[in-house]
Amino acid sequence: MDPVGRVLGTADATPLQFWTAVTPGSYLQLDDVVVTRRELPDREPVTIAGVVTQVRARHEGAQFDSDVFAIADGTLPAMVQEAAEITTTRVDPEFYVPPSPGAVVHRATGEARDAALHFDRMERRIPMGTGRDGVPVFLNADFLDGTRGAHVSISGISGVATKTSFATFLLYSVFRSGTLGGDAVNAKALIFNVKGEDLLFLDHPNTKLDEATTAAYARLGLPATPFPDIRVYAPPRVGDSSGAPDVSSRLTGVDSFYWTIEEFCGQRLLPYVFADADDERQQYTMVVHSVAAHLARHAVPAEGGVSIDGVRLGSYGELVDHVVDQLTDDETRSTWAGSAINMGTVNAFARRLIGSKKDLARLIRGDLAARRPHAISTAESAQVTVVDLHNLPDRAQRFVVGVTLKTEFERKEKSGTAKPLLFVVLDELNKYAPREGTSPIKEVLLDIAERGRSLGVILIGAQQTASEVERRIVTNSAIRVVGRLDPAEASRPEYGFLPPAMRQRALLARPGTMFVNQPDIPVPLCVEFPFPAWATRFSEAGPPPSGSMRSIVQGADPFAVVGSRGGSSDDEIPF
Amino acid sequence: MFVDAWDPAYGASFSGGEADGPASPSSAQVDTDVEVPAAQWAPIDVPRGIRCPDVVLLVDGVRRNDAGLWTAEEDGTSYPGLAASYAAGVVRCDLRNGVAELAGARVSRGLFTASPSAGELVAGSVRYEIHRVSGTGEASKLPAAVQAPLTALEIDVSAAARDHGSDGADLLVVDGPLRNRRQLPRTIGYVKTQQKQYLSAALTQVVTSLRAGQRTPVFHLGTVWGGWSWYLRLPGTSGAPWAGIVRVECSPDLTADQAVELAGLSVATLPRFASSSYKDPRAPQNLVPIAGLERRLRGMLGDVRFLHRALTMATARGR
Questions:
Q1: Number of domains in chain B
Q2: pLDDT tens per residue across span A528-552
Q3: Do the Cβ atoms of A74 and B98 come within 8 Å?
């Protein structure tokens, strides 16, 4: 380890923070890891390790600002002195004494660096990028897979903070690093694609992948390949009776998802039509629940649609019209909505239900075959399931997210075991689980945040502003990640885990730079993760993998070798 | 009327009651016909073709009285003593590369007394060497005794600075009169305060009529510490007759031509080191590198309260 300076004596040295004067000719940058020792009488020396959280340089011997010109001119003698603030990350043995001024400070490498950043105590570590020094930085898997903690919260400005890229890279690392062993093979991921068609090409190689990026992956012990096994679901096209998926750039390997009217009634999905936090404050929630119960009780499957009270309803529009008719009819109202409901409430409900026809008609179908696979189910899907929401209106997005999460969570609840793990990547968490108000989706997300850890459901939530997300979801996230932040947002208490200097840096973090806080390291780590090895848009997508040519109806490959994951190999013939 | 640029705490750049220059006329024999006949004296500009040297070395020393002491002799008498810290250093101004650095500095501490029984004082890592003063050693004469070892230290460091790489064309500027430092080559003494009036009234008019960056012709002083000397005016002054005037001298061992050459070099060099009045209480005469050097040296002298305590403890132990 090379010495880089000495502990300063002109500023207080404390066990948790101290300043180091940098030896002329050496340098320290932010995030460098350093180590120093303190000799103690009659006991073993204490090793104090930390990371650089601030560096400064100044002219010593200058009194006035303008002295710098005399110094640069060569007339005033002065020397440039650099100093670095060190925030302690580890004291070993735990004996909290300050380092003594004058003690030599070394740059930590190899084992000393691992010890300083507590990597040596991590039994299972997931690479999540490189530090500023170019050496890998790890995440403790215990805090991701539910052993000791779970859930990831990623905050940052949209566009530059690369929240989704980091989430997908993290998933990739979980699946491909081998840290989780057999668990990683069986683990599933559910990703909601809310912006553009960004995430629809996870299984396409990135044509812009260069050698430097491949080397960066290799340094982390990862192959630079696209995700091997993904399945993409998109909503059916509007007005298309065949139910073809509504995507423009990805043409193969996309399946459409929808719910039949029978499922809508039987599984009581009506509350998710009213999943706006605004809706919950209204009186008509009672109506919603009694109508949902009535539908579940009385709807009888009939040729793709349902039949209620002898009336066949073949589309969502017909269902809505029938419900509204029944509610406005004085004779039938009380059987549908109970007796204590006044007309104003019923009208408010009816107005909104009619308003949902336009948004949901394409998703709730009576005209498509019920036997045709159409449900989003991670258990029967590929390793990564991408649900495309980007061209759905807001109400439909909420409906899909709410119903899908509820279905998945209930399935995990029934299975009763945490394994296989299910990772859920959801952007715009502040929309689905806002701090104020309640909604059915927020209930599901809170359930995931609070009980998901033991059920093996790991939420990787992303949002522009953590301050607008339900506090219980943020506090339940063991791992907090911050990309570039808005200046006003950075000053909020939700980011209290960032030291002041890091909070400032978060304002100018480049795309690809994240600050990751994990429970067993007292200082957030600055991480640079490599450019995706998979395509993030159509223009950079390489040739599609052969597996994606198959549609969901041919999902079971008759030639697939039993036990191997279908579609990942180009060699289609097993003999 | 002009306001003197110097902080009154430092006196004036010339001593005397009147504002028309150094008060006391010197008894020294002055030869003013060295460069040009006295009758043709006029301000001289920087000669053509003379450039400021690439490397200028400036030497200075600082001193501080740390404590006054009293000895208790066996016969009941007592001698005063003075514990002083002093330091000398050299700044190497590399004007071509724009680097000014401390080329060498040395700190020393001494106990000055006439007491025959006193020995050196050691307090921890601090050591005061004994400097026995001859005579009765009155307290008022002790500060002057520090000057000799300080000058010796200055000579040491300036010689050492030149040993570590001299391009043979550098110029060494000594703060204060040359005195016994005259053996150093390519060296000029730089006198900030004018105490003696060496020139006649007619020639003094040439001094006061100097513009910034001009010098008088070289003249020769016939005193013990005399030698070749000239006046020059630094830039950035208020316009008062003696503002910014310094006297520069060089070794009498040089020939008159060598002295004139050095005088030309000094006018080309010194004005760029002049300090500005809002930064330095003795501007412009206190040169920027010297001011910086003094600050560094004072820092090296150590904390006076710490030294005073060390002395108190060391003497208490000795009793």
A1: 1
A2: 999 888 888 888 888 877 665 554 4
A3: yes
